[in-house]
Amino acid sequence: MGDYIVLAISCILINNILLAQYLGNCPFLGTSKKMETAIGMAMAVVFVLVMAGVITWIVNKYILQQFGIEYLRTVSFILVIASLVQFVEMFLKKSIPALYAGLGIFLPLITTNCAVMGVCLINVNEEYTFLQAIVTSFSYAIGFGLALILFAGVRERILLARVPKPLQDTSIALVTAGILSLTFFAFKGMV
Amino acid sequence: MAKTLVQEFTKGLWDEIPPFRLVLGLCPVLAVTKTVENGIGMGMATTFVLVCSNILVSSLRNVIPSKVRIACFIIIIATFVTVVELVMQAYTYPLFLKLGIFIPLIVVNCIVLGRAEAFASKNGVMASLADGLGIGIGFTLALGALGAVRELFGTGILTIWEKPIQIFGPSFQPFTFMIEAPGAFVCLGLMLCVMNMMESK
Question: pLDDT tens-digit profile of B146-162?
Fold first, then answer.
């Protein structure tokens, strides 16, 4: 049990997917202008990432390794993720319309979110067991949400500040992300 | 509207240079630019995928039904990424190890899918080839430049053709911040700022 807690903490804080592993940065910059969109994106990622992590683990173990076709990993994983996202979208629209309205446009965007694909590949490369894969997927997703929501809070404040003209918009956002990343950097060596 | 092929090619080098003008595909930009070599290697792999997928998407643009086009584009891109992955594993193994999971992640690089959707699915084969090549080379240059800045200040050494060259001399204290994660964000932000300043003059 202790091992899993250590794994979870290291995935959330130390190896934070956005700020230490540099995965999923496009939605990080794209959806962090407003708190609402950031929360929507974070929820959508938690939802899809856990499911994708579980399914790609099963696909890798029982299909790809069984038949010795690991070189098809990239193609099969992206297919699994794309169809999963489509399926989740249709399912939510039909059965939980409130959640669907909340996640809205963020669901289709997740297909090209490298955090999802990246975590699936990390799970396979590190040869995690099934339970470990679930824990890492969930904690990476939580780490993603944590960083995204923190960053959105900071960015809303920046809107009120007077930023020099050449630094405006994306440029100042990147510098801010660097400073936020520095704070997460301090967790290194904790575990 | 008839733009020449040269214009399609050169727009990728400054006007629409990723990741500065098109803020897409940031993950490899931040992750692999610890050294110049990694940056350029990643850029070349992406260029290959971009050019091939642009050509194939544009030649199949009248055949692919528009409802399932995104899925078709992803399959085409994933196929070329697998090709690059296997070729790099065979011929440039050290680089393959250094780039790690970022090679399979070219599949989800928004630049490649973005160009397929925004350009190749609407234009002819030659124009798409020029566009892919231009954006790809622009991306490679950007990665190389970012890699050079980070490597130079982070270690004081520039590695060109596997030969380390000491630039700042032995008494230089490396600014390690630059080759760590936070340095990547700050460095990219400041480069974008410099580019904006040059533009506004």
Answer: 888 888 888 877 777 77
Unique residue bearing structure tokens 């405006």: A168
Instruction: State which residues form the domain around B134.
Output: 5-200
Domain residue spans of chain A: 2-185
User: Nearest-CA neighbor of A60 among A147, A13, A120?
Assistant: A120
CA gap A90, A71 in Å, rounded: 31
Helices (H) and strands (E) in chain A, counts: 10, 0
Across the interface, whether the CB atoms of B30 and A185 are under 8 A apart is answered no
Complex-level ipTM beyond the 0.85 threshold:
no
Q: Do A74 and B81 touch (CB under 8 A)?
A: yes
Mutation for testing the B interface, residue in A22, A80, A151 having most B CBs under 10 Å: A22
Dist. CA A40–CA A43, nearest whole Å: 5
Q: How far is A5 from chain B (nearest CA, A)?
A: 24
Report pTM.
0.86
Q: Is B180 part of the contact surface with chain A (CB cutoff 8 Å)?
A: yes
Helices A2-9 and A130-158: crossing angle in degrees, nearest 10, is 30
Q: Which of A56, A81, A84, A114 to mutate to test the interface with B (most CBs of B within 10 A)?
A: A114
Total number of residues shown for chain B: 201
